[in-house]
Amino acid sequence: MSNKTSRRRFLKTGIVAGTGLAASNAVAEGDPLITQKQPWNQDLGSGVDERPYGMPSAFEVDVKRRSVPWLTADPVSSINFTPLHELDGIITPNGLCFERHHGGVAEYDPASHRLMINGLVDKELVFTMEDIMRFPRENRTYFLECAANSGMEWRGSQLNGCQFTHGMIHNVMYTGVPLRLLLEEAGIKSNGKWLLAEGADASGMTRSIPMEKALDDCLVAFKMNGESLRPEQGYPLRLVVPGWEGNMWVKWLRRIEVGDQPWHHREETSKYTDLLKDGKARRFTWVMDAKSVITNPSPQAPILHSKGPTILSGVAWSGRGTIPRVDVTIDGGKNWNTARMSGPSFDKSMHRFYYEFNWNGSDLLVQSRAHDSTGYVQPTKDELRFIRGKNSIYHNNGIQTWHINTKGVAENVEIS
Ligand SMILES: Nc1nc2c(c(=O)[nH]1)N[C@H]1C(S)=C(S)[C@@H](COP(=O)(O)O)O[C@H]1N2
Ligand SMILES: [Mo]
Questions:
Q1: Does residue 155 or residue 7 have the better pLDDT?
Q2: Beta-bridge partner residues of 141
């Protein structure tokens, strides 16, 4: 590189860093927050015994799960949503993981928990939590997305906020025992091709899972992000089915039956099937295809400055692998830019991307488009509708558009 180019580069970076980034003239103007003493440096703070389990700052009260009243027929068989627009990085904090339960949160003493393996096995087994903890365990980070995430958006843009359009997802580091080890302990008979996973909650959730997946990467998990599972997430034990729809991740896991064919239960027939244009329904669509969303700016997180350096941020994930690349447009798809990925790139985990640009203060149509490690590219909503029609609910991984007006206010829209 010649001196000239390196100098030009240096100047360019210097200019970007200095463009109106409002480290204002606070000192010169005598900002009292700088020049005067404040309560927090005059009075002593709280002591070490006052927060035995730490909670977020009182100023963070709006960072919470939210439900949509008209989607909540009954709170014990409903859903709330992860506040994606308030988060950064790739890990969802335990208290903010969206909840989906069909019979309320089951709460019981782990000493009373049993996991049974029965059916086409050499010896039927019952494990206590202590037994499970004596198997070699693994730590892996995965997203869990409900197949119904974005399901309200099939007929057009509807819910105003990425929390509601995309918040049926969380991304957690699990500690658990490979399901394969427990199945090997029981010994799978040669005709054992399917599993039925059953929950201990009042809903009696059951799903059929093919044996190849069970032996490949499923975990029987007891920790999330280092601590015990939260009751909402299935304490003390849940099934982790990496990359596959959330409904299969049975919480409060109490029984695994080995069989020679699927069971065709409610959650794999009347629910979690994909209606096609011709009125037929596709079944066993387990894998969650690549998807992404811009979390900031978004309807709940407007741009607060009028123009200048602006950070666009979002998340992307794929049930088939990693996300090597995300494209971002701010002009409704006329020009696409490659986003900057930041943070670990784990298999079947959420990825974080950023796009830094100089906002000229005019209207924006922002979109993101994920590419996964298999080469698959996230489709538009119209491309999905061409195959699926408008009456689907599940597996909507179409590109999301936010319109940002000159005041920085964002709205859920569709463009074609
Ligand atoms: N036992 C049991 N497992 C369950 C459910 C349930 O109601 N009961 N809901 C399922 C559905 S539909 C989803 S999307 C995920 C949600 O997991 P979460 O509550 O950790 O977000 O759990 C799945 N596992
Ligand atoms: Mo779900």
A1: 155
A2: 173
In 3D space, the residue among 295, 301, 310, 408 whose CA is nearest the CA of residue 362 turns out to be: 408
CB 188 within 8 A of CB 211: yes
Q: What are phi and psi of 86, to 5 degrees?
A: -100, -5
**What is the rounded distance in angstroms from the CA atom of residue 177 to the CA atom of residue 179?**
6
Are 65 and 92 spatial neighbours (Cβ–Cβ below 8 Å)?
no
Closest ligand 1 atom to the C-alpha of 170? Answer: 21
Q: How many Cβ atoms sit within 10 Å of the Cβ of residue 41? A: 7
Task: Say whether pTM exceeds 0.85.
Answer: yes
Give CA 116 to chain center in angstroms: 30
**Cα 51 to middle of ligand 2, angstroms:** 34
- pLDDT tens by residue, 140-176: 999 999 999 999 999 999 999 999 999 999 999 999 9
What ranges do the domains of the chain cover? Answer: 84-282, 291-413
Q: 329: which strand partners?
A: 367
At 282 the pLDDT is: 87
CATH superfamily of 84-282: Oxidoreductase, molybdopterin-binding domain (3.90.420.10)
Best of 237, 244, 247, 248 for a ligand 1 pocket test (most atoms within 8 Å of beta carbon):
247
Give 147 Cα–ligand 1 centroid separation in angstroms.
Answer: 11
What pLDDT does residue 373 have? 98
Say which residue the tokens 């007929």 belong to.
Answer: 155
* Ligand 1 atom 16 nearest Cα: 100
Whether domain 291-413 has CATH 3.30.43.10: no
Which residue CA neighbors atom 12 of ligand 1 most closely? 247
Q: What residue type is assigned to position 190 of the chain?
A: S
Whole-number pLDDT of residue 19 = 45
Pocket test for ligand 1, best of 249, 255, 271, 286 (most atoms within 8 A of CB): 249
Calculate the CA 70 to chain-centre distance: 22
174 lines ligand 1 (CB under 6 A): no
Number of other residues whose CB lies within 10 A of the CB of residue 288: 26
